[in-house]
Amino acid sequence: MMMTLLRWALNAAALMILPGLVGGISVTSFTSALFAALLIALFNALLRPVLILLTLPITALTLGLFILVINALLFWAASRFVGGFHVTDFWSALWGALLYSLLTWLVSLALGGKRR
């Protein structure tokens, strides 16, 4: 449980870094980042697999690159539901989602991956 809370807080901290790296993304407070990190995680766990399954033909045609579009759209959608977290356009969402994925992967790597 403690590891999950630590991972959530570090993912929120990673989200706080994004406005400095990508124009068009703003995060006003750490609380907003916490809620956004939680919503992004929920979207990735619940909606992403369904969307990937529904878009399987186009994903196959683009050799998997359409998954980047799905990630960007889910990142952008999360910004619509969380006050204090704003993404202005699709390209900001695309770069933000890519960098957020990289940062959360580094957090996971630093915390020991999925070992229990």
TrEMBL record:
Swiss-Prot/TrEMBL keywords: Membrane, Transmembrane, Transmembrane helix
Transmembrane segments: 12-43, 50-78, 90-111
UniProt xrefs under InterPro entries: Phage_holin_4_2 (IPR007165)
Protein biosynthesis among keywords: no
Entry annotated with the keyword Acetylation: no
PANTHER family noted in UniProt: SLR0284 PROTEIN
Name of the molecule in the record: Phage holin family protein
